[in-house]
Amino acid sequence: LVVFSDEEQHGDCLDLNEHFKEFLNLDMFEKTDYLDYLTKFDQFSHAPRQKKFNQKYTSYLTHLETYLSDFYTRALPLKNLAEERERIQSEFDAKWKDGTCEGWEYTGESAGSDLVERKQARTAEELEEDQDDFDADSDGDNDDDEDKAIYNPKNLPLGWDGKPIPYWLYKLHGLNINYKCEICGGASYRGPKAFHRHFQEAKHAHGMRMLGIPNTSHFINVTTKADAEA
């Protein structure tokens, strides 16, 4: 049985919430909201060329590609993903050779010079990260003062701007409710979204294996060992 999250709507929609959070932490693009992100998340040519070699950006793309491949397999089980990959790769190789890949201003013959530029970009990126770390250490006291100044009596989660999210949004997503799972060693999950998602995560799957029970969709919403073994 193919399992989809609530956001995926049985394969009709993508669930890119986690990738959106990772995107916001890249510090490569202007801050945006989730709806705007959904309209342009696949427009990779907008990334600054030197920033494309950033390790965080590479990691983000890897996670995104892994999810999209998995979703494609689940949502379109009759399609052959390997053949689709081969077709896309062939189209890309042709554009790369002709120098027509959007966002890459070189031809196949100048690939060697691009490798040099890539190494230079990585070096510049490393220097930039070192400088950021130094600045962060230098401003540590100021940051501590700013953190202490944040008024957050309800202990609300922080948004991308470092400030507590609105209380209405907190309650809308059910983040005021904690769900415990005995199978996960008593772990607690804040909000129904995180709770439902955790049934497909490694920690819950490991707990089920320890009980000698397959982690199938039949056991979704089962959180106690007694119910799982019943």
From TrEMBL:
One Pfam family linked to the record: SF3a60_Prp9_C
Span of domain Splicing factor SF3a60 /Prp9 subunit C-terminal: 155-229
Keyword Lyase: no
Domain of life: Eukaryota
Span list, region Disordered: 112-152
Comp. bias intervals (Basic and acidic residues): 115-125
GO BP annotations, alphabetical order: mRNA splicing, via spliceosome
Protein's UniProt keywords contain Nucleus: yes
Subcellular location: Nucleus
Domain (SF3A3): residue spans on this chain: 4-52
Compositional bias (Acidic residues): 126-147
Annotated Gene Ontology cellular component terms: spliceosomal complex
Record's keyword terms, sorted: Nucleus
GO molecular function, one term: RNA binding
Name the record gives this protein: Matrin-type domain-containing protein
